[in-house]
Amino acid sequence: MIGAIVSAIVIGAIVGALARLVVPGRQNMSIGLTLIVGIVAALIGTLIAQAAGVADTRGIDWIEHILQLVLAVIGVLLVTRFGPGRTGRTRGTPT
User: Fold this and answer.
1) Any domain includes 10
2) Which structural domain range is residue 14 located in?
3) What stretches pass through the bilayer (predicted)?
4) Phi, psi of 61 (to 5 degrees)
5) Is the pTM of the predicted complex or chain greater than 0.85?
6) pLDDT digits (tens, 9 = 90+) for 6-58
7) Spacing of C-alpha 77 from chain mean position
8) Would you say residue 95 lies in a domain?
9) Overall number of domains in the chain
10) DSSP 42-76
């Protein structure tokens, strides 16, 4: 149980950090929010991979990790676009 929690945190941190590297531009997100987005993306990606039957393969589960990264990128984009303090307007547009 404890090992699964630690594993989820570590994988979530890696997936969240990679997602922030993939998304162009500067993201105004805290480390904690990055970790949460990464953990959620890792969990949902694992569930999708298990449902598709590709979560437990020999060696590295590349399809599962790619799913996790894609979901984390989507999560980072959603948080940076619609997160707290965002109005949906870009700089320089009149209010």
Assistant:
1) yes
2) 2-82
3) 6-23, 30-53, 65-83
4) -85, 80
5) no
6) 887 888 889 999 999 999 888 888 888 989 999 999 989 888 988 988 877 78
7) 9
8) no
9) 1
10) HHHHHHHHHHHT-SS-SS--HHHHHHHHHHHHHHH
